Amino acid sequence: MQRKYMKKILSIALSSMLLLTACDLDINDDPNHPESSTVTTDLIFPAAENAIADVIGDDMFTNAGFFAQYFEQMPTANQYNDIAELNINEGKGLFNRDYHLLYAGALTDLKDIVDRSTNTADIFACTVLRAYAFQVIVDCQGEAPYTEALQGASNTMPKWDDGQTIYEGVLAELDEAENNLEADDIMTLRDDLLDKDLAEWRGFANALRLRMLFRLIDGGVNVDANTNKVKELVNNNNFITQDVTWDVYSNAEHQYNPWYDCSKTLNADNHCAAFPIIAYMGGTEDPRISYAFAPCTYDNSYTGQLPGAKTKEPGWLGLTTAEYQNDRVSNVKYDAFSFAPIYFYTMSELQFLIAEAELRFNNDDAAAQAAYEAGVKADFASKEADDVDTFLSGWGEWKGSKDEKLKLIYMQKWVALFMRDHLEAWTEARRTDTPALSPYSGEQIANNPDLYNPGDFIVPAVNQYGKGGLCKRVPYSSDARSTNQNTPTAKGIDTPVFWDK
Asked: How many CA atoms lie within 13 A of 493 on its CB side?
């Protein structure tokens, strides 16, 4: 136990230092900011892992948590009103920090390692993380610098590539890097993500391929060829055997999980339960409802707030603003996540993708059911929830038409990704159109709950964007626009990314 604790402290200190120093190492002879040539590649790698973890586990964990309708703004707080009400445009700088973390941080560090290394195992692991980082960028904002990116002073204004080009490009890079591996290759980099286990890195690469290929297929890109690739991946079954987690945090100041640390630093309870996730989990008698939410103290029920409705709900519910307080909604159990790991990929997500492939492409109902149930069981185990067999024989039972079973897979994936990977939840909801979008407004649902199909997304009651829908992308980084004249014309958050058909 003590060794694991010390490993966490060392990893956090090392990763934090490198995140600040390894990306822009041109300060002359400052011992606190060494030149890049003096920092060995095995120490730079954790900084790249940490930068990606920070993106998916902090800012986008909150933002996508709102977009996936897990979170809503607490009645008495205001920190995330803009996100809840879709008051989002390029001027808000929503993606600025993440853009810097990925480009100036992770991708620059990974390129530095690859440029200096001849170890094919190390290069392969860097290529997997590079593909992951670019997948995140495309899924968030659609387009990005890729073919001309990361060239430093030789090209300070790289062109922006479309998302399909980036997806296909990094998948090709993955294939090349894996083909270069030798049977006896071993990693030399310090690796707190998969502990230098090259077999797991191969499995991670295949799981990432599976995730991305589904998006290419549903985006109408080389459907037959990419479908065959999915079928081959599933048939070979050479995937991760564990959750891929950045598990370096401790329950101590300056060592917290970054999402928790941000919430604690703000000293405000900003997140409460959103109506759709509470309605679905409550309606399906899902014991995982208590994993991250507490019953509201007003009447001990699980109650979610309607999306974007903080200023509307008092009137809809016949209450005054003074009466509509935090005790009326289910609060998030913040302290349960003080040192929670950040999830890059979960076993439950993998099994749900396999189930989808077996059902859609192989027409193998038995194999699809086995994978679906494995996905549910993996999430129950991860969240230490009881009675999974009861759930699978009840509300989670595998039954109905093919379309009904697909919806069951998608809905259970949405539940499983809660408090695991909110960016992936928002992304998959866009790809699958599940949960569906309710045809009824928040006000109609508040006044007549019987109209609502539990789990359906709801258009925010206050929709500052004014388009009457949901968020389909985040705006381009305003910092990128200020420094790169090749940044494309701004696109609204109602513009889908390439695979969102």
From this structure: 25
